[in-house]
Design goal:
By secondary structure, this protein is of the alpha+beta class. Helix content is 23%, strand content 36%. It contains 3 helices and 8 strands, in the order H-E-E-E-E-H-E-E-E-E-H.
Amino acid sequence: MNEYLKNLRETVGHMPILVCGASVIVVNEKGEILLQLRKDNNHWGYPGGMVDINEVVEEAAKRELLEETGIVANTIELFGVFSGKELYHVYPHGDEISIVDIVYICKDYSGSIQADMVESLDVKFFALNELPNNISPPCIPALKSYVGEASDYAGLSGSGQNI
């Protein structure tokens, strides 16, 4: 948690706050997507996190990807902006947030995949029709959108049975 959020939480406690997130769906040459097993809720999701004050959103997305997975995003492309009731989340420790998540796609990356063990317990690629059952709730809208678009494009029969 960054200093800004720590200070804000000292003032507002667990009450809901609005946060801007920057996230990355990494796609390998097989069309699989990279997911991390999050330490905070033991659910799978794409790498991402909160944009710091005065931080460029694209740089935040790249920073979060590197911190959580060891991957360097050489190029990213805007996928979409996700918000609304589906991105309202209560963390296991009680903090409530409403997320505006700016999600990027990355197919051009380098580095060695490795869970940071601070925010991620595991990191691995999944086929779109073999996603895990326990997807982190704030990631579901973007993943549904991505899987639907990728399935239409690739002619896949399923659209992510678990999301």
